[in-house]
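An example makes the point: we print one protein in full, the chain in one-letter code, the fold tokenised, without further comment:
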Amino acid sequence: MSYLPSHFTSKNWESVKAFIELFPLATLISLHNQEIFTSHIPFIIDNDKLVGHINKENPQFEHLHKSKVELIFHAGDAYISPSEFKTDELPTFNYAKVHLKGKANFIEEPKMVESLIAMTNQLDFNFKLKPTHPKLPMLKHFIQGLEVSIEEFHGRFKMSQDKSESHFNTAKTLLQQSQEERLNLFLNSLSQSDY
């Protein structure tokens, strides 16, 4: 059971679909033998199913076929300080996520290749993956295509919608600024010698 305040929850498939197309990298969660498994996998939407692929060396691969799964798509989050508002507020976190539950099934190689081509077409305007690419036949040894049938979904878009319009707009701006600032801080602190 999820905690879903109605003013922060969207069950509109077109909104959720547009979100997934913009932010296709999902956290894939499954349960096997009382152990939780997670991976970060990109998905595309194909006939109201989600299609992706998983590396065969990933331990999650071993039990994923016909498993119930949850996917979480992420767009961002931010701490919202009361100092940004004239009203009497408390600190909060705002965020934009989509949760989706369904059943995962492995797909045949031709459909996986189609999904890889569709994914690059959706995300990359400078590179087009061709079905004749010489590395594609080798992929079947390393990755497995999968599709997730959608059983339930909802967007969790918490942006202070329960406050005034000016508060709502300020909260959206703060989320955007916070994302950029924190990502820049992280990237500037990162070096290859850390790994």
About this structure: The helical segments are 13-22, 61-64, 109-123, 136-139, 165-189. Residues 7-187 form a domain with the Pnp Oxidase; Chain A fold (CATH 2.30.110.10).
